[in-house]
Amino acid sequence: MALPRHCLLCGLSCGRMPQGPICPACDAAYWNEPRLRCTVCALPLPRLRARHGGAARFCCAACSRTPPPFDATLALADYRPPLERLALGLKFRSRLAVAREFGARLARLADDHPACTPAPDVLAPMPLAHARLVARGFNQAWEIARPLAHALGVATDPTLLRRVAETAPQSRLDREARRRNVAQAFRVTQRVRGLHVGLVDDVMTSGATLEAAARALKAAGARRVTNFVALRTPRD
């Protein structure tokens, strides 16, 4: 008989957890929140925007005014209590089961999603700085990308993007400083001309890092860039 597992959100043991490392009660309470999101950056939108016709109703004012280099973003939920415990547990406590959970849920979200029709040609995890990768021992974005790619039946390449500049942690910077910090941080190492590339990360905050990576991919000829992020910070 399998040993009981503990929910990573509430900490309670319920014997069987068919939803993975999260118990059914927490799954119902916190996941799959009915949020209307910008199709480009995945920021939550006011419900009033849904009353107007046309695809523009699902695009936030900032993305309508100044479109970012990526084309779409899929996000599972807001980065908020208690869901942020999952991302922090993955990143700082090596809870790799969380990465598999994120990957599986992103794959389900991608099913029949307009941004994934057709599916990306290749998925690329956001690369870590070398020193950070050595200290942590793994790249959480790669751990999410592997099960996601398997579920979608697409290729994934952990070396497609290379971080070529050591940058300060984004959490210490304001929005504009974040953009400057990572503006030239990435280099594309493989041929991507004409491809639809999916970028995978655990958390999207300002979007500056994903913007820099998407800009490098578009400069290398990528046809389309779609972000797959587990959690999205509602406001920067």
Automatic annotation (TrEMBL):
Family indicated by similarity: Belongs to the ComF/GntX family.
Protein name: ComF family protein
Species this chain originates from: Trinickia dinghuensis
Lineage of producing organism: Bacteria, Pseudomonadati, Pseudomonadota, Betaproteobacteria, Burkholderiales
Pfam family, one: Pribosyltran
Residues in Phosphoribosyltransferase domain copies: 179-230
Positions of transmembrane segments: none
Chain segments annotated as coiled-coil in the UniProt record: none
InterPro entries attached to this UniProt entry: ComF/GntX_DNA_util-trans, PRTase-like, PRTase_dom
